[in-house]
Design a protein that fits this description.
This is Transcriptional regulator. By secondary structure, the chain is mostly helical. The protein contains 9 helices and no strands. The chain is elongated.
C-alpha cells in the first residue's frame, strides 16, 4: 500500500529511517537471501554495531521495515459508496504494486515470509492492519443497505486485492487500471450477491 507522511525527528528516528531505506534498497537489488546487515549499515552510513544492536537479525530488520510501511501507509479514503470505496482501494494497491521500488519490495518481503516465520508474522500483521483500515467502508455499505446483512467486510476487502497480487506473484500479467477496475467491480458484485455473507446471516 502506498506510503506517505512525515517521520518524527531526532537522531534515533533518523538512524531508523536511513537503515530502513537502505534495507529496502538492498532487498530490491538482491532479495532476502542476500540481505546482509553489514551491507545495510554501509549503505545507511551508520555503524554496524548500531544495526546489530537494534535489529539483531535480517528477519528483525525486515519485520521493522514492514512495520514502518504500515506506519507510513496513506489513510483510507471515504467516498460514500461501496463501489467508489473499493475502486479507491484497488487503485491504491495497483499503484503500489506497479511502483518500481514498492512492487519489488513486496515481492522480496513475500518471498522472505515463505521461509521465515518472523517475516511471515510481520507480513500477516501488516495486511491485517491494512484490511482493518478498509473494512469500515464495507460496514457502512451494509448500514446503507447496499450489501446484505452478515456480509464479512474483511473478505470483501481481500477479494479486491487478491487478483492484483495474483498477477504480481504468479501470472506476471499487467497490473493496469483496467485490472484494478475489474477487481473492484467483481468484489462489489459478489458482495451484493451475498457471496461473502456468513452462513445463516443473509436475509
Amino acid at each position: 500500500m502506498a506510503v506517505g507522511g512525515t517521520r518524527p525527528g531526532g537522531r534515533t528516528a533518523r538512524v531508523r529511517t536511513a537503515v530502513l531505506n537502505a534495507a529496502g534498497d538492498a532487498l530490491v537489488e538482491h532479495g532476502f537471501d542476500r540481505l546482509d546487515l553489514a551491507d545495510v549499515a554501509r549503505r545507511a552510513e551508520v555503524g554496524k554495531t548500531t544495526v546489530y544492536r537494534r535489529w539483531g537479525t535480517v528477519t528483525g530488520l525486515v519485520a521493522d521495515l514492514l512495520a514502518d510501511m504500515a506506519e507510513q501507509s496513506l489513510p483510507r479514503t471515504d467516498n460514500g459508496s461501496l463501489i467508489e470505496d473499493l475502486r479507491a482501494n484497488a487503485r491504491l494497491v495497483q499503484r503500489t504494486l506497479v511502483d518500481q521500488r514498492q512492487g519489488a519490495l513486496f515481492r522480496a518481503v513475500i518471498v522472505a515470509a515463505t521461509c521465515d516465520s518472523r517475516a511471515a508474522e510481520a507480513l500477516h500483521h501488516f495486511y491485517a492492519v491494512r484490511i482493518a483500515e478498509w473494512t469500515p467502508c464495507v460496514e457502512q455499505a451494509i448500514q446503507r443497505a447496499e450489501l446484505p446483512p452478515g456480509t464479512d467486510p474483511a473478505e470483501v476487502i481481500r477479494a479486491v486485492s487478491a487478483p492484483l497480487y495474483y498477477r504480481l506473484l504468479l501470472s506476471g500479467d499487467p497490473i493496469d487500471d483496467a485490472t484494478a477496475e475489474r477487481a473492484a467491480q467483481a468484489a462489489a458484485a459478489a458482495a451484493r450477491a451475498g457471496v461473502y455473507t456468513t452462513a445463516g446471516d443473509s436475509r
